[in-house]
Specification:
Elements (H helix, E strand, L loop, with lengths): L2 H10 L4 E6 L2 H10 L3 E4 L1 H7 L10 H12 L6 E4 L7 H14 L3 E5 L20 H14 L6 E6 L8 H13 L4 E4 L7 H9 L6 E3 L9 H7 L2 E6 L2 H20 L12 H7 L2 H11 L2
The structure holds sulfopyruvate and magnesium ion.
Length: 290
């Protein structure tokens, strides 16, 4: 079954889907093996991979290239984080065609102005679009998609911008009116109270998506109790885990004056061969190289 259809079907059930951020094909392979339900082609993770701030510095082409490479190495549905959609509704029309072709099953579009500032920065400049303008962008996305199963998820940054729950609810309802399949509600508070309160107040006809980056205490059991959240996106855990491991290993090699100690604490090369499907390549060699 195509991944977008599969994602839609699974979302029509009652289960909560766990979506892991991926910044590379290898991270996608590891997420699939670990048992996640889908992948988040995260703007934050890809920006960090390039050593850049998550502030609209990565181009659409860079993101699409990574998405295309990831889609070739996984069977999981991919939810593309397209930030503000690279401009206005016209840019959205172009982007949706490109992301569908690159293998995304869904996009998340956020209601900030371009260029955006990453949401979790303490003193980030968080400016939102007029509601009508963002509705136009959502309508453009919904109208452009070729595959009816392709999901258009509207993300409101009203809580991130400090505009309060009433504004967040008003925006979320307006985006559903414009055709959004789901609402992603984001918060940078250290505790999940804002998200839990929004979820309880949400009476709209579509489910919610959350990204518990700032408020890690909101685990799956608590989220299920809310009753209207269908996806948890683990938005920066891949790049943070990778950077943790590399930072520690690189420092030890310098401190130890060699790799004599670290080599037994990191994956053996045979495991990397397995992830690279070396056995299949060797079999193809044996069969076809004459
Ligand atoms: C991302 O992973 O790129 C996100 C989530 O958008 S956050 O960085 O928390 O805004
Ligand atoms: Mg992002």
């Amino acid at each position: 079954m195509p991944p977008a259809k599969c994602l839609r079907m699974r979302l029509s059930g009652t289960s909560l889907l766990h979506i892991m951020a991926a910044h590379s094909p290898l991270s996608a392979i590891l997420a699939e093996e670990a048992g996640f339900d889908g992948l988040w082609a995260s703007g934050f993770e890809l920006s960090a991979l390039y050593g850049l701030a998550d502030m609209s510095l990565i181009s659409m082409t860079q993101h699409l290239d990574t998405l295309w490479a990831i889609a070739g190495r996984t069977t999981l549905p991919i939810i593309a984080d397209i930030d503000t959609g690279y401009g206005n509704a016209i840019n959205i029309i172009h982007a949706i065609g490109e992301y569908e072709r690159a293998g995304a099953s869904a996009v998340v579009i956020e209601d900030k102005t371009f260029p955006k500032v990453t949401s979790l920065a303490a003193d980030g400049r968080q400016e939102l679009l007029r509601i009508e303008e963002f509705q136009g962008k959502i309508e453009a996305a919904v109208t452009t998609r070729q595959d009816p199963d392709f999901l258009v998820i509207a993300r409101t940054e009203a809580l991130i911008a400090g505009l309060g729950e009433a504004e967040a609810l008003q925006r979320a309802h307006a985006y559903v009116d414009a055709g959004a399949d789901m609402i992603l509600i984001h918060s940078k508070k250290r505790d999940p109270s804002e998200i839990e309160s929004f979820s309880r107040a949400w009476t709209g006809p579509v489910p919610l998506v959350i990204v518990p980056n700032a408020y890690p205490d909101l685990d799956a059991e608590r989220v299920k109790a809310l009753g209207n959240v269908c996806m948890m996106i683990y938005g920066n855990y891949g790049i943070r885990a990778a950077a943790t491991a590399m930072q520690e290993t690189f420092r030890r090699i310098i401190a130890d004056g060699g790799v004599q100690n670290v080599h037994k604490d990191i994956l053996p090369v045979e495991e990397i061969f397995r992830l690279q499907k070396m056995r299949e390549v060797k079999a193809a060699e044996a069969r076809f190289l004459r």
